[in-house]
Specification:
Two copies of one chain form a homodimer. By secondary structure, chain A is of the alpha+beta class. Chain A is 32% helix and 29% strand. In chain A, strands 1, 2, 3, 4, 5, 6 and 7 form a seven-stranded mixed β-sheet that branches. In chain A, strands 8-9 form a two-stranded antiparallel sheet. At the A-B interface, strand 1, helix 1 and strand 5 of A face strand 1, helix 1 and strand 5 of B.
Amino acid sequence: MALNNYASGEWMPGISVDCVIFGFHENQLKVLTLRFNHTDIWSLPGGFVGVHEDLDAAAKRVLLERTGLSDIYLEQFHTFGCLKRIQQAKKQHKEVGDKMGRTQDDFDWISGRFITTGYFALVDFEKVNVNVGNLSDAYAWKDIQEVGELFLDHAEILQFALEQLRLSLDMKLVAFNLLTDTFTMSDVQSVYETILGKSLVRTNFQRKMLSLDILERIEKKYSGGAHKAPYLYRLIKK
Amino acid sequence: MALNNYASGEWMPGISVDCVIFGFHENQLKVLTLRFNHTDIWSLPGGFVGVHEDLDAAAKRVLLERTGLSDIYLEQFHTFGCLKRIQQAKKQHKEVGDKMGRTQDDFDWISGRFITTGYFALVDFEKVNVNVGNLSDAYAWKDIQEVGELFLDHAEILQFALEQLRLSLDMKLVAFNLLTDTFTMSDVQSVYETILGKSLVRTNFQRKMLSLDILERIEKKYSGGAHKAPYLYRLIKK
């Protein structure tokens, strides 16, 4: 497959997007990472911004290209514009560039200063078919506690995204993107606990959720056993 | 004063910063706007990003240049990267460019596509000495309800900043940047009410503030009258 010619004028110079794709499944929270071809350098999925492309559209494109998903929660959370985010990484760029057979023009362009806008997405990682693209030869859903070193400042971008994700639980009720149409209070609590990385007191959590006036109790959940069946809820459409 | 030569390579192409400087004083919330020389076009204070300058530093520089203030609350809130933010405004650019005697090179550079990162600041507007800079000939602290049309998408940027400011009241306790070291609960409520643009129930507000565990009650406020003197509080240092 032919490499893009990055210096061709097709892309905005100095601007990129990086996507922190959080994957949730059965009480595990992971993040999608890609390994650059023939290296041991892992990165977040990212890309450049077309000269005729909206910034948000570039992030959606990266997400679609890597995961095949288009109709999912994607939120811009911060733009990273420190000089040192690139300066400290000339060596990594050189290694990646060499291994990929880049031209000097491309290398100069890619290793120049970039300001990158971070987006995070939240998906069920069991439903994703990852396409590594032509710059990478492997992917991994890494446990967020065990990500290790990443390309450039991507570890810092990940931490920032994680803080925003946690804030978005309450502020933007982002957890409900991971639940089916109806769910038990225990289902909601599991998502919160996994994303927050800590246990929550059941009664307090339930009181808080109900006080938000966003949930509608719909029916008793069927239970064949002797235990009390939990209530089912759904989100009130606003 | 000589104009900068924007196309000289001193600045990052395609990237700018815009500052929404909220001014608060005695229960009024205003925003700082500048008028381009010899036009009736008003804008938010903004600027370009030096090739050797951090993105955040560019925002701090704009704030310092326009207000003389350096040690105040400044928060990045969103990056605006729609194509149409510039495309719809060629006419405005032409008008501003013509009035300023720009060269064609400068005009081409300035009227090209820009992605802009928005920052908001919160200041006491009574303490600010505005310096309009060499691109503007007037400034105004406009009431946020009566701003009217602004340059490019600056009205949209302002609305976005206002939403973030309101969210930051609870999440980041940003209101306390506007209070002196000690304050009454009524002082806090006034700041909240002005920024939120609505009245709050005193007892509920007080209960919520105290439940945050961020306030320390220090002493009775002196009162010469017969009425009960309000308590004074200060922020607990963390």
